[in-house]
Specification:
There is one protein chain. With about 20 residues, the chain is mainly alpha-helical. Helix content is about 90%, strand content about 0%. It has 1 helix and no strands. The longest helix has 19 residues. It is rod-shaped. This is Cupiennin-6c. One of its GO terms (cellular component) is extracellular region.
């Protein structure tokens, strides 16, 4: 469960990075 949350946060950060760029 925690692993999934960490993965989601990682994807969210990547998506945010791409959006900011």
């Amino acid at each position: 469960f925690i692993n999934t949350i960490r993965l989601l946060i990682n994807k969210y950060r990547e998506w945010k990075n791409k959006k900011d760029s």
